[in-house]
């Protein structure tokens, strides 16, 4: 079972969007997926309630949790034969989010491309470096707005902190939000759309990167 934590100091960077669409893309692949919602906004959990109401489907399981529950929740997901656990976190780099990163095999940091996002990204990367978690971190560009200078700034940060950057990551697409509004993910809503293809490619890239992290860890522990 893999555990991925989606984390960023910046609010609105796309954490919950990524968690929900990646979860639905993995389910489409036949994987058993659970989401642990550590954000007190409970956005992921609310989407789950909407999904049960509108689509009448229980998967993915979405568990609202507090930090002290996290190990127990992960073990429960493991016992229930899940393939993937996605942890959604509040917009912060604090004890909660860094611990949620600490229990993960991979930390996914989404970033948009405005000045404020790039500033916050630097802080997020610095906090992950201080917590010694950069080796399991990957950056995902979200909804890039074509601003070349900002993209260059993000690329430079990725280089400086030695973090891989998935670029283009997730394109700006209104279809992502509208499918969530129906209690679905984009892959379930319109499988052949560009946005769905984008999410599927992103999932594949992230699985590949997660495997790379696992191989490196095995080598280091050998
Ligand atoms: N790739 C995208 N294309 C279009 N809209 C997007 C994209 N990613 C996120 N959004 C929109 O941006 C807003 C914020 O996204 P989301 O809630 O996923 O961010 P978040 O990081 O989870 O926020 P918070 O920090 O408050 O938890 C939402 O309205 C969402 O629909
Ligand atoms: Mg969120």
Measure the end-to-end span.
20 Å
User: In oligomeric terms, what are we looking at?
Assistant: single chain
What's the helix-strand series? EHEHEHEHEHEHEHHH
Biggest sheet: strand arrangement = 3-2-4-1-5-6-7
Please tally the β strands and state the result: 7
Percent of residues in helices: 40-55%
Query: Could you tell me the radius of gyration in angstroms?
Result: 16 Å
Give the biggest beta sheet: 7 strands, parallel
Name the CATH class. Alpha Beta
Overall, the morphology is: globular
**Name of the CATH architecture:** 3-Layer(aba) Sandwich
What number of domains?
1
CATH topology: Rossmann fold
- Please, how many helices? 9
Unreliable stretches: none
Write out the distinct hetero groups bound to the structure.
adenosine-5'-triphosphate, magnesium ion
Q: Strand portion, in percent?
A: 15-25%
Mean pLDDT: 97
SS content category: alpha/beta
CATH superfamily: P-loop containing nucleotide triphosphate hydrolases
């Amino acid at each position: 079972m893999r555990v991925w934590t989606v984390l960023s100091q910046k609010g609105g960077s796309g954490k919950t969007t990524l968690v929900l669409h990646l979860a639905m893309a993995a389910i489409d692949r036949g994987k058993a997926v659970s989401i642990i919602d550590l954000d007190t906004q409970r956005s992921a959990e609310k989407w789950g309630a909407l999904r049960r109401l509108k689509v009448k489907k229980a998967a993915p399981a979405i568990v609202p949790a507090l930090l002290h529950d996290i190990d127990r929740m992960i073990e429960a997901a493991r016992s229930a034969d899940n393939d993937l656990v996605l942890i959604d976190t509040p917009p912060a780099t604090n004890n909660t989010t860094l611990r949620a990163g600490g229990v993960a095999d991979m930390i996914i940091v989404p970033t948009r491309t405005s000045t404020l996002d790039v500033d916050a990204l630097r802080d997020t990367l610095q906090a992950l470096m201080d917590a010694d978690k950069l080796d399991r971190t990957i950056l995902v560009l979200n909804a890039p707005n074509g601003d070349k200078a900002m993209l260059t700034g993000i690329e430079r940060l990725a280089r400086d902190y030695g973090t891989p950057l998935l670029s283009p990551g997730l394109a700006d697409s209104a279809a992502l939000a509208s499918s969530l509004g129906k209690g679905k993910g984009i892959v379930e809503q319109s499988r052949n759309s560009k946005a769905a293809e984008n999410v599927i490619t992103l999932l594949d890239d992230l699985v590949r990167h997660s495997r790379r992290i696992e191989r490196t860890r095995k080598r280091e522990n050998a």
